[in-house]
Each structure stands twice: as structure tokens, then as C-alpha cells.
Amino acid sequence: MQSGEDFFLHTKPVSLFFKAAIPGAIGMIASNIYFSVEMLLIGRLIGQTAFAAGNLALPLILIAYALADMIAVGSSIGIAIRLGEGKRNEANKLFTTAIAVSVALSALLGVFLAAACPFLFSLMGADGALIEDAVLYLRVYMILLPLTSLVFVLDNYLRICGWVRFSMAINLVMAGLCLFFEIIFLYFLDLGIGFAALGTSLGMAITCLICLYPFIRGRMALRFVRLRITKALLHDIFKQGLPSFLNNTSGRITSILMNSLLLHLGGDIAVSIYGVFMNIDGIIVPGMYGVFDSLQPAIGYNWGAGREDRVKRIALSGVVAIAVMCLAFTALLLLFPERIFTLFLESSGAGLSLAVHAISIMGLTYLVRWISYACQSFASAIGSNKAATVLSLCSALVFPLLMMAILRSLHLEGLWYVTPSAAFLTSLLAVVIYIVYIRKLLGERE
Predict the structure, then answer these.
(1) Residue 359's closest CA among 377, 343, 379?
(2) Taking the model in full, what pTM does it have?
(3) Which of 86, 225, 247, 268 is deepest in the core (most CB within 10 A)?
(4) Number of domains comprising the chain
(5) Among 409, 355, 92, CA closest to 221
(6) Angle, to 10 degrees, between the axis of helix 88-123 and the axis of helix 48-84?
(7) What contacts 440, CB < 8 A, 6 or more positions away?
(8) Interhelix angle 369-381/48-84, nearest 10 degrees
(9) CB-based contacts of 71: which residues, under 8 Å, 6+ apart?
(10) Who's near 128: CB < 8 A, 6+ residues apart?
(11) Please, are residues 99 and 150 in contact by the beta-carbon 8 Å criterion?
């Protein structure tokens, strides 16, 4: 098998894109689409209240997974750069530390969220059956969180080791396992929302054990070594992974605030409409993430080896891919909003008319979202953490909160414009950052 170093340093950029980015995008979509499928099954088989409850709880669940993803991204960048520099022992130390830290922090966060979720949901305005379903759904996820969150960490390491196709295959297997358990619990056994969470957790836990096996056997370029957690290694992980964590976490905080406002102004139906959009977003964003996340090791290897010419060509292929992806989804949301909404929930009359109107507006987000995402991912891959962090915060928190404050005076109508207007502002900022900072940095390296 071709080593990760040979694969990322010597494969032609176009060939590298087809061998790494496309399987990575497919695998990442597969590893995240089960949340959308789960929500679809909940909406169709359990009902609107359970669907709204799941969408209230999902941002908190994804914040928990964002912690592991931060460790995965932060350590992967450092590992790829070290391997590019030929420092394999240091890469293995970072790999071992990241695994241990991910398990420990996920366990602590799971306990906290399980205890605090009733209070958090009540702050959001939930009560009655809505809050009961939301609490049950979240708590079941937290039980296996230390194991299930490790899937995201190990998936990054598989790609760093050049096992890109295996990564894609294992993500497809995970999606299949999650779907299998969901159908058994919800369709055949007619069980409630707690078993929807259990089905996905079981599929992810089994997948995690499969991913661990080749590392335990010592068959990979990365190997477990004696655990010695140092401040330097922790600093490296959290510094490099902070932009990704801020982006994911800030986005979930924004979703929580949006759900609170929507629940207040429009009730369950408004939360459900936003939930449908966010489930579509849960397909698009992993696709974009999968493209650049799969190319990040290649960018890191070549950046560490001083191959800036390859860095730019590899990054350009990723930019083109996510632009095409975003524009295609924009067309789908504008042309088929009714079909997309009724796929998740049966509806008619005023509720359906509101959903068609809202989804058509929010679909404009993807006309420009690829610009800021590409700039942020590239900045993160080459270690420009300040630029990536600024874009993460503005994209996921600062601009959405600003637009919420400005557009809230328009009541429910104004909230539908929050996401596309925030995406437009972030894209303008990304263009400025690229022109002023990143292009200058590339010139200095050359």
C-alpha cells in the first residue's frame, strides 16, 4: 500500500482530488446523513412534537461531538505537518495524546449535558411533551458519547495514513448500521424517540471499534505509544483545532437561539421548518467539510515540505468542488421547497405555505457560503489560526447574532433572512482576509 507521505507529496493534484476529496466527501456525508435520516424517520413515524424536540436537542448533541472534532482537526493538522517533516515519533505522541484526551473530555461533557439539559430546554421555552422528548433524546446519546465521538477522531487518522477508501467504506457501513437499528426500533417495533437515539449510538459505537482495530494491530503509519500528556501537545491540539470547534459550537449556539425565537414567534411549526433546513444543511456542510478535510493532510504535508506550488493547486480543486456543491443545493432548495419539507413532515394549508416560503429564502445561503468556508479551511490547513478563527466566529456566531438583532423587528419573516444575510457578510470578510493576509503569506513562503 502506498504510504501517506508518498500519496500526499507525489500524487498529481487532480488525481489526488479524485482519490482523496471525493471519497472523503462521500464518507463525511455518509457519516453525518444518519442525523437527517433519523429526523426524517422521527417526523414520519413519531410526529411533529417529537421532530421539534429532536431539533431542539440536536444542537447540544452536535456541540458534544464538536469537542471530539476539534481534537481530531487540531491533532490531524499537527500530525500531517510532522509527518511531512519526517518527525514520525512526535506524530505518534500527538496521536496517542489526542485519543486519550478525546475520550476523557467527551465523558465529562456527556455527564454535564445529561444533568443540565432539562434546565437548558426550559430556558429555550420548551414545556410538556416537548421537553420530555428532548431530554430523553439527548440523554440516550450521552450514554455512549465517549465511544461514539471517537469515530470522528479516528476517521481523520485513517485518511492521514492514506486509507481514504477504507474511511469512505467505513462511513458507509456506519450509515447503514445506524439506519438498520433506526428502522428496527422505530418502524418494526414502533418505539419512541429515545430508541431513535439508541439506534444511531449503537451504529456509531460498532463503527468505532472497527476503526480502532487496525491501529491496535499496529498496521498503520500512526501507532499507539506510551501516553505522556504534556502542555506542549495539548497546546498544539487546541490551538490548531480551535477554529473548527468555534465554528461548530458557535453554529449550534446560534441554532439554539434561533430555535428559542422561532418557538416564541411561530411555535412548533416554525421550529420544524428551521429543523428541516438544518437537516439539509447537515448534508451540505459535511460534504464541504469532507472535501477540505480530506485534502488537509495533503496541504499540511506539502506545506511542511515547502511545496507551495502543490498547496495552491490542491486547494483550488477543493474550492471548485464545494462551489459546485453549494450552487447545486441552492437550486434544489429554490425549485423544490415543498417536496423537501414534506419529505420530513406531512403538512398542508398554512403550515406548508409558510414552509415553502421560508425554505426558499434560507436556500439563498449557499450561493455564497462556499467562499468563506474555502478560505477558512485553507487558512486552518496551513496553520493560519487567527484568520481561520475570525472567519469561524463571524460565520457561525457574530454575523448571525447581528442579523438576528437587526431583523427580529420584522418578526418571523425577518428570522428567515438571518442565515443568508450572515453568509453574505462572512463571504465579504473572507475575500478581504484572503487579499490582505493569506495571499501575502503565500508570497512570502514562495
Answers:
(1) 343
(2) 0.79
(3) 247
(4) 1
(5) 92
(6) 160
(7) none
(8) 40
(9) 98, 101, 102, 105, 153, 237, 241
(10) none
(11) yes
CA distance 392 to 396: 6
pLDDT tens for the chain, 446 residues long, are 444 556 676 677 777 777 777 777 777 777 667 778 899 999 999 998 999 999 999 999 999 999 998 998 889 878 887 887 788 898 899 999 999 999 999 999 999 999 999 999 999 988 889 999 999 999 999 999 999 999 989 988 998 887 878 888 898 899 899 999 999 999 999 999 999 999 999 999 999 999 999 998 887 888 899 888 888 888 888 887 877 787 678 888 899 999 999 999 998 899 999 999 999 998 898 888 888 777 877 777 777 777 777 888 888 888 899 999 999 999 999 999 999 999 998 877 788 999 999 999 999 999 999 999 889 888 877 777 788 888 888 998 999 999 999 999 999 999 999 999 999 999 999 999 989 888 877 776 66
Domain that holds residue 351: 4-445
Cell 512570502, residue located: 444
Q: What CA–CA distance (Å, rounded) separates 316 from 314? A: 6
**Crossing angle of the two packed helices 399-407 and 418-433, in degrees rounded to 10:** 140
Grid cell at residue 400: 448571525
Grid look-up 443568508 returns 420
Structural Rg of the chain based on CA atoms: 21
